[in-house]
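CATEGORY: protein folding

GOAL: derive structure tokens
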Amino acid sequence: MTHVLVIDDDQDIARLLTIRLARAGFDVDSRSDGASGLSAIHANHPEVAVVDWMMPGMDGIELARAVRAAIDIHDTKLLMLTARSNPADHALARATGYDDVLTKPFVPADLVSRVQTLCDASHGPAS
């Protein structure tokens, strides 16, 4: 089963994401801040991490920089989930290492589709 990690300080959003992704067949875990999310990525090596941008302490941009700099987890697919809709913010997220950016509010089916696409990409082409 594909492992997905949700990192969001808003408990209601984290719960919603976890339920939707679990219903879609993913093995989902969640963390409420960037530092514990980064530790969970190191410990559990999820295929995809869905990360909120604005969190206290380590924000989503700092988390992406840390993931991309760490040899053991740099290939983890990252999906930024943010209320920031400015194209410059999306460009910054991608430049920092995010594979995709989804703006809040979002359609849950779109979230599931994007996570599935990233999971497929993490496994590479079928042989």
